[in-house]
Amino acid sequence: MPSRVDPDPQSPILILGGTGTVGSRIVHQLAAASIPALVASRSGAAPESEHLTGVKFDWYDESTHDAPFKAAGDRGIRAVYVIAPPIIDSGPVMKAFIDLALAKGTRRFVIQSSTAIAAGHRMGMGQIHKYLRELGNEGKADWCALRPTWFQENFSTQANHIDSIRNENKIYSATGIGKLPWVSADDIAAVAVKILTQKEPPHTEYKLLGPNNLSYDDVAHELSQVLGRRIKHDDLPREDFEQRMLAYGMSEDYAKVMANLDHAISLHAEHRMNDTIERLLGRKPKYFHDTMKEAMAVWQ
């Protein structure tokens, strides 16, 4: 069994994908709480803070995988937030990194998966969820899988949505009238910080959902209210939506998966509700309308 790093306040937390939608929010929340963190990204950049250190990290370049541990030095890394690279078969490279971290003495891993990806699913996060659960059952790691539904921020961060809202007054999907409980990245990050820093080992998974179920038609209505102009939802056949994703540079296998996930929403696979965020954070999850108001300048 690997030696366990002393989880004292000087041992940093490693955030993979530290400049992304959720990762950047975790980083800011940790810094605000004066908790040291390593911000891992291909650029190696980090926000200016005495509590943050940027490290170069690229899933596709294994020569960078030891960089966070060199940056941590003798303090070690007390916990890792794991965000997968955008490829289907990311399991092997993530497993290799987790094994490296275990060998270096890191104990806790919090992975960002999805409501659509259960433990054992063929996609990388499903495989790593299963692997970490097995390690936890063997007493070799503390783990937690966060399984959020679709992000509210997708419409203000993804080029396909930004372009269509700004230039066409449209949003596109293959979801029909299916509804889902859009969740804010701010809430995902807040849950992540809680799990990364709490004393008790989590050893569980959490589905993270927003406060209400909205279809893409509902989203278009919310955007129309915020922007003061009519935004329309254009529902595409699954194959056409897949082609749209390909046109925005998505790989063929990933575009097919995303089209299939949209189709599953049309069959009501994501129409669900729970009180997990409220139980963990002691407050209601953020409403879609509020997130859209904060981001409205993006679509002007």
UniProtKB/TrEMBL annotation:
GO biological process terms on file: indole alkaloid biosynthetic process
Domain NmrA-like: 10-285
Claim: Oxidoreductase is one of the keywords in the record: yes
GO molecular function, one term: oxidoreductase activity
Keywords, in A-Z order: Alkaloid metabolism, Oxidoreductase
Pathway noted in the entry: Alkaloid biosynthesis; ergot alkaloid biosynthesis
Pfam families per UniProt: NmrA
Keyword Protease: no
Highest taxon of source: Eukaryota
Gene3D superfamilies with a match to the protein in the record: NAD(P)-binding Rossmann-like Domain, UDP-galactose 4-epimerase, domain 1
UniProt record similarity statement: Belongs to the fgaFS/easG family.
Protein name: NmrA-like domain-containing protein
Organism: Coniochaeta pulveracea
